[in-house]
Amino acid sequence: MNGINQYRRGDMGRGVAMASATATKKVIVEFPENLLKQAEKVAAELSTDRSKLIRSAVEAYLEARTRTQLEEELAEGYRTFAALDREIAKEFAYVDSENL
């Protein structure tokens, strides 16, 4: 009987862990009245609820922010290594002329 109880407790523990991975939290967010009305109007047009609309907007913002940060890091990398890249290109310029 003790082994069965441990097994059941183990299953429950996994279930709790799985549920917490997809758990949601309620938050209170203040909106100017006009912005809230616009959000409610768009949510109705999209046949969704306000929470889903706001989640989608936050997700889109975070994705755009991540993309912008990556682009900035790449641009900085290009700037940092530009001189080295030019030197390497000069060193191998003769290879292009050999193929003619």
The CATH class name reads: Mainly Alpha
For the report, how would you describe the main beta sheet?
none
> How many helices does DSSP assign?
4
What is the string of SSEs from the N terminus onward?
HHHH
Strand portion, in percent?
A: under 5%
Taken together, the total number of domains comes to 1
Q: List how many beta strands DSSP finds.
A: 0
CATH architecture name:
Orthogonal Bundle
Taking the alpha carbons of the first and last residues, their distance comes to 84 Å
Write down the Rg.
28 Å
Helix fraction by DSSP (H/I, runs of at least 4): over 70%
The residue ranges in which pLDDT falls below 50 over 5 or more consecutive positions are 1-19
Structural class call reads: mainly alpha
Describe this structure in a few short sentences:
The protein is mainly α and 100 residues long. The chain is built from 4 helices and no strands.
What does this structure look like?
- By secondary structure, the protein is mainly alpha-helical.
- The protein has a single domain (25-98), classed as Orthogonal Bundle (Arc Repressor Mutant).
- 81% of the residues lie in helices and 0% in strands.
- The chain contains four helices and no strands.
- The chain has helices at 2-21, 33-45, 50-91, 93-98.
- The longest helix is centred in the last third of the chain and has 42 residues, at 50-91.
- It starts with a helix and ends with a helix.
Could you outline the blueprint of secondary structure elements for this entry?
Blueprint: H1 2-21, H2 33-45, H3 50-91, H4 93-98
